[in-house]
Amino acid sequence: MTTEKDLNRLADTSYWVDKGKENIPFNPKKGMILTPKTIKGLTQPYKVLKVEDNTKNGMQAMAVAPIKNGVVDTSEVIIAYAGTNFDDNLDRLTDATTVVGGNMDLSIPQWWGSPEKIEGQAVTAQKFATSIKESYPKALVTTTGHSLGEYLAIYIAAENQWKNTGFNGPDPYTILSDEAKKWVKDNPGLLVNYRNKHDKIGNFGGNKTGAAILLDASKGGYNPIKSLDYHDLSAWQFDKSGNLVAPGRSSRDSRLAQMEATTSYQLWNLSVLSDNLRKSHGGLSSSEEIFINSGEALIVLNGASTVMEDGLTTVMKDYQQAITEAEELWRETVERAQGIGMDLSHDEVIEALASGGATQRSIVGETTTFYEQKMDSAKRMLDEYRVLMSEIKASIDQQVAKDQQLAKEIQF
């Protein structure tokens, strides 16, 4: 899967689609190869599948596919939507009309008469997404964007039941269809909108989609003079694996949040695969058909079980470690207090600590309860995953049994 670092870079590159934007290296075009040399920070090359620079309403979008071992892998497609170009009147009008006002159409002022009503960026963003879905019907699509671009990217992901990971986006819940609102509610963790807690622009609209992950990327605390910096894509930092990390937040917490989101996403994809296989009728003529039409079957066959088991096991170990650390913190707190109040009994030391707000319940009990609930959730997720894997494997085995050619080509 594409890393969060690459999604950050692709979100930034989508701004370059705007032919009216100044001081950019180039305008991405269909067929162009984006590489770590041409796009600073990319970890792998991508081929541009399609771009759109809509001069009527100001919407820009770019669809790309990763290049793996020299081959364009269109089983995975990323759609990046551009955010606000403050020099573009149409972008500013979209911010006011759609993001703030919740109106899907734009009214373009005309000096000679009444305003012209046209399709807004959300409408043409969906048309762009539809064209990608039609061109690559079996692709696993992820949307990304920044600011207005992430607003559109979340909207598109929710309406099409895709994954989203983006940055600093206002929440588009007010323009979602009822079906999309239900999907968002039923599938938490598939939409990830990284927000800087000091970013006034990106935090607009609340968080009814549940997509927001609020982090402190301010590097030294809030400074009103740098308020726009908190909305910048460059404020986000990434580790060597391309995962987002934030100052003031432990690497363990970052890893756990990312693992939970990834696990939820993979579980949802596997459930979709399971449903598709259940609905399948008749035999399959080739391995290509079962792989492409099922979408995620290749992941199953290439070791998704091991990855998921290891990932969830790691999460539960980290939760247990957090409990152990809380217990150790309480023990050290009591020992230090006893060292200071050497004339006090153990009970008197505990009472003195409690008067200052430090109790075993607040340090150990609440932490233990929190992480035990997390562990229970992870265990349920693991059990659910195992059931899904069993169902999927049984369905694939049934398909193979119906088709001797497939049985010869694939060894289970």
TrEMBL record:
InterPro entries (alphabetical): AB_hydrolase_fold
**Listed name of the protein:** Fungal lipase-like domain-containing protein
Q: Which species is listed as the source?
A: Listeria booriae
